Amino acid sequence: MQNSLSPNDKVLLNDGDKCKLVELSDVRYFETYGNYCKTYYRGGTLLINRTLNYLENRLPGRDFFRANRQFIVNLSHVKELVKTNGGQFKLVLSCGKEVEVSRRRSLQFEQEHCL
């Protein structure tokens, strides 16, 4: 499956009996919740019936980053990047959420996003 979405696209987030049309750039991060994902966006949260693997394949890779097995973050909402003693990264988002980047993903992040 191709990355068919762009940050300016609006996506329909379906949470059972609730549906919300949200601009993808407003999504701060996705967090795994069993076979579902909790979507944190400007204005609230919704639990959607999608896996992180599915979302990773649909989201634009240059704008969203799979930090570990639990989180995909929107890079435009990363406020600070902290390198830990073990050489891994911690992403601090504009909402204050801190997301640890796995060792393997830290190497990938450094190669793709650091000068």
Number of helices: 2
Q: List how many beta strands DSSP finds.
A: 10
Biggest sheet: strands, sense, closure?
A: 5 strands, antiparallel
How much helicity do the residues have? 10-25%
Low-confidence stretches: none
Instruction: Please state the CA-atom Rg, rounded to the nearest Å.
Output: 14 Å
| Shape summary | globular
Q: How far is it from the N-terminal to the C-terminal residue, by CA?
A: 30 Å
Order of helices and strands: EEEEEHEEEEEH
Which structural class matches the secondary elements?
alpha+beta
| Beta-strand content bin | 35-45%
* Largest sheet: spatial strand order: 5-4-3-7-6
**Averaging pLDDT over every residue, what do you get?**
89
Note down, in words, how this protein is organized.
With 115 residues, this protein is an alpha+beta fold. 16% of the residues lie in helices and 44% in strands. The protein has helices spanning 52-58, 103-113; strands at residues 10-15, 18-23, 27-33, 36-41, 44-48, 64-66, 71-74, 78-83, 89-93, 98-100. Strands 5-4-3-7-6 form a 5-stranded antiparallel beta sheet, with no helix packed on it. Strands 8-9-10 form a 3-stranded antiparallel beta sheet, with no helix packed on it. A two-stranded antiparallel ribbon has the order 1-2. The longest helix is centred in the last third of the chain and has 11 residues, at 103-113. The chain is globular, with a radius of gyration of 14 Å. The model has no long low-confidence stretch (mean pLDDT 89).
Quick take:
The protein is α+β, with helices and mostly antiparallel strands and 115 residues long. 16% of the residues lie in helices and 44% in strands.
